[in-house]
Write a structure and sequence with these properties.
The structure holds two protein chains of two kinds. Chain A is built from ten helices and 14 strands. Chain A is globular, with a radius of gyration of 23 Å. In chain A, helix 1 packs across helix 6. Chain A is of the alpha/beta class. In chain B, strand 15 and strand 16 form a beta hairpin. Chain B has a six-stranded mixed beta sheet with strand order 17-19-14-20-21-22. By secondary structure, chain B is an alpha/beta fold. Chain B has seven helices and 28 strands. Classes of the chains: A alpha/beta, B alpha/beta. The interface between A and B is large, with 49 and 69 residues. Strand 8 of chain A pairs antiparallel with strand 28 of chain B, so a sheet runs across the interface.
């Protein structure tokens, strides 16, 4: 099978963080980890091209997956392998989105990254094989990827034994009896000693290590972010009141603070009366300006990011987090205040 | 007569319902006087009201549904039904209660903080709501210009109760189809059978997101024990209009499904050991206090296992987790009834705030999964669906959470969720 390999700018040898904004390009040969992967695949499958893209471009630009897909299709390959992205969030999201796009376009697609990478959720319905934490585990990871490529190419599906990760979809259906009757059954099953019985497997969210403190806040560029659904009056970006499918960015300009009527909260999970009387209580621009005037913080980033945190799935929440972090890094922001409602 | 201190439930099964000149219930055919019911809704806070029947199988969608009530009465005018609202807040749950099975009084329209919830009366989506199988008398309304929203809310609540009681009064002289004699809970019986009880969490987030017990909000209360027969007589009334898929309307409290399941098996493979009502505070410290207190009450009742139900999402999830954790920490069994939120494609983690030690939960389905509602001939409750700006009768794709009572976190529905097994 003809295989195309997707990597980021770093593994393509183009450069590090300073090159994270480069757009997608093609190399007509295996590149970086693709060379080792090609040798593991042997004669049966050939890596005919490598497509690469900068992490920021790929993860924070809605059009990027489609652009990358065009380059992939132009190579004439029948299969796409993306990654391994290990625990890199932007690279993982790009690998997941590219794999999902290729799958939808009818290619056999596979992504490789750490099981807790938020990109895992982006790849569905394309499969993801788990990798180690960092590129130090490249060798063993590529061996696992090569085996998965061979298995998929032969028309088989991957299993957890092959390193398959990501939730297998859960689907609604009607049960024989109502939930209350099933709850009584479950209580009696547990009382009889079966401690593992449950209809819902409990998830493990892991933990996010907080970043270290800002060394000198008086020189730092600080951003204001909120999940409080605060948008300019009229809600021009049509942010949802619940189950938000997007996040938005709006200018703060040189406003001393927010005014009643200029911004409103569209959040559907709490009473917005007080918030709308003084929008600064959702997005603390007034206090942030004072802190800047006092010299306590260096400067304020000129925009704020907003979504609605109400019934939002963890997968969407994790994705917004990675996208915000990528964007803030790109803008040189050192710290952010994220208000929660 | 019913057993002393017990309740006799007289079930009248309604097969067809409509308006007519000769009100009454005759062999399952319910005929009501539209004018008489309209008169019960008259209130200075309401400029006008409209009554319309929406029946199973009809090409009708009801949008913006607020509360729904099962018609019940204890005698002409209610005679104690809905204590604290239609009568004094005196203990109920004894004597006789007439139930119109197969009928619901449904209030539909716009109130602040209400989230769009709807029911389709035909097609596959009808199965997702308990109102898809009942003959629904829909009350639509126009608020009076000078009325405040709390007055409008109260007028609708009282009016809907009066209409529900008046419909049930039509059955007072009719022969019941079933008679249930319900003894009060008797904790002394049952021998060595396991003792299982229920904790019913009630949402308590202020106006339009509140639930009433004997006419009063439960917001500032500690958990309290109640006899299940009191629920039959309307001791718990909903004024909670958020989270359409995750709400427990008055109809559902009148027919508490966990109580029904425990009653069914009482004396067979378990003893129904107790029923506790608990608020869902919004403050974390109060959540912890309330949860610990409810768990201790359950232990004092001698329960071996407790089933915890909730109302709402997010915030309410932690009330479930805290309570079943508190119960498990005592070496007892805690079971949660829970709706999953695993994203439209079902691949996200199902529970956002999982319990730390208790792990047994029954699923009422994935909140985020999309369903398609076919276009219908007519819509009641409003002209536009606020969620998407579409004509209320149009074909639309929605999260299942928008269907009224679809993910019933008190366990009324059959919807569940499971890992997809592919070939």
């Amino acid at each position: 099978m003809k295989v195309v390999h997707y990597v980021n700018q770093f593994f393509a040898g183009v450069g590090g963080e300073e090159k994270a904004t480069v757009g997608p390009e093609v190399r007509e040969a295996p590149t970086g980890p693709g060379r080792k992967l090609a040798s593991l695949l042997g004669d049966e499958h050939q890596i005919v091209a490598t497509v690469f893209c900068g992490d920021d471009y790929a993860a924070s630009n809605d059009a990027a997956p489609a652009e990358i897909l065009e380059l992939i299709k132009a190579t004439g390959a029948e299969m796409l392998v993306s990654g391994p992205a290990f625990t890199s969030g932007r690279y993982g999201i790009a690998c997941g989105r590219v794999a999902a796009a290729a799958h939808k376009a009818g290619l056999v697609a596979l992504a490789a990254m750490h099981a807790e990478n938020p990109g895992v959720a982006e790849a569905a319905p394309a499969p993801v094989v788990a990798t180690g934490l960092t590129a130090r585990e490249m060798g063993a990871t590529l061996e696992k990827v090569a085996l998965a490529v061979k298995k998929l190419a032969s028309g088989q599906t991957l299993t957890p034994e092959d390193g398959l990760v990501g939730s297998i979809p859960r689907r609604n259906r009607l049960a024989e009896s109502n939930a209350a009757a099933r709850a009584v059954d479950l209580a009696l099953t547990r009382l009889a000693g079966d401690r593992s019985a449950t209809e819902i497997p409990m998830p493990d969210f892991g933990a996010v290590a907080p970043a270290g403190p800002v060394t000198d806040p008086s020189k730092a560029l600080i951003a204001l972010l909120t999940e409080g659904g605060l948008v300019p009056a009229g809600n021009p970006g049509r942010l949802e009141s619940a189950r938000a499918t997007k996040w938005l960015r709006y200018p703060l300009e040189e406003l001393p603070g927010l005014e009643e009527g200029s911004h409103v909260s569209v959040h559907g999970g709490f009473s917005t009366v007080v918030a709308n009387e003084n929008p600064n209580r959702i997005l603390p621009l007034d206090v942030a300006r004072e802190l800047k005037d006092e010299g306590a913080i260096g400067s304020l980033y000129a925009e704020y990011f907003v979504t609605t945190g109400n019934g939002t799935s963890v997968a969407d929440g994790a994705r917004y987090g990675v996208e915000w972090a990528a964007e803030l890094r790109k803008q040189g922001v050192q710290a952010a205040i994220l208000t929660s409602t | 007569m019913a057993e002393q201190n017990g309740l006799r439930r007289l079930i009248h099964t309604v097969r067809s319902a409509g308006f007519g000149e000769s009100p009454g219930l005759n062999r399952g055919d319910l005929v009501a006087s539209e004018d008489a019911l309209q008169a019960l809704l008259a209130n200075p806070a309401l400029a006008s009201t409209r009554l319309t029947w929406a029946r199973p199988g009809e090409s009708v969608r009801i949008v913006k549904i607020l509360d729904s009530i099962e018609p019940r009465t204890k005698g002409a005018g209610g005679a104690g039904m809905f204590p604290g609202f239609l009568g004094p807040a005196l203990p109920q749950g004894t004597g006789e209660t007439h139930v119109l099975r197969g009928v619901a009084v449904v209030v539909a329209g716009k109130l602040p903080r209400a989230q769009e919830g709807m029911v389709q009366m035909s097609g596959p989506a009808a199965e997702l709501s308990f109102l898809g199988a009942t003959n629904n008398l829909v009350i639509e309304f126009e608020p009076a210009e000078d009325a405040g929203w709390p007055q409008v809310d109260e007028a609708l609540r009282l009016g809907a109760m009066r209409v529900a009681v008046a419909l049930a009064d039509l059955a007072l002289e009719a022969e019941p189809d079933e008679v249930h004699d319900l003894a009060p809970l008797n904790p002394g019986t049952g021998g060595s059978l396991p003792r299982v009880g229920a904790i019913v969490n009630l949402q308590t987030q202020g106006a339009f997101k509140d639930v009433f017990v004997y006419g009063r909000t439960m917001a500032a209360s500690m958990p309290t024990a109640i006899d299940p027969n009191e629920l039959d007589d309307g001791a718990v009334v909903s004024g909670q209009y958020g989270h359409p898929g995750l709400k427990n309307p008055t109809f559902v409290h009148q027919n508490n499904p966990v109580v029904a399941a425990l009653r069914d098996r009482d004396g067979k493979d378990l003893v129904f050991g107790g029923l506790i009502l608990s608020p869902e505070p919004v403050d974390q410290t109060l959540k912890e206090l309330t949860s610990a207190h409810a768990a201790r009450m359950a232990r004092q009742m001698g329960l071996d296992a407790v089933i915890v139900t909730k109302e709402g999402g997010g915030n309410a999830d932690s009330d479930i987790s805290l309570k079943i954790d508190a119960f498990e920490a005592m070496g007892l069994v805690g079971i949660g009834i829970f709706a999953e939120m695993s994203g439209p494609d079902g691949t996200g983690p199902p529970v956002v705030g999982p319990p730390t030690t208790a792990t047994a939960m029954v699923s009422t389905g994935n909140y985020d999964e999309r369903i398609t509602l076919d276009a219908v001939d007519r819509a009641l409750g409003g002209e536009i669906v606020d969620l998407n700006g579409l004509d209320a009768a149009a074909e639309m794709v929605l999260p299942v959470a928008a269907i009224y009572g679809s993910l019933s976190p008190i366990g009324l529905g059959r919807l569940t969720c499971a890992t997809e097994v592919t070939a």
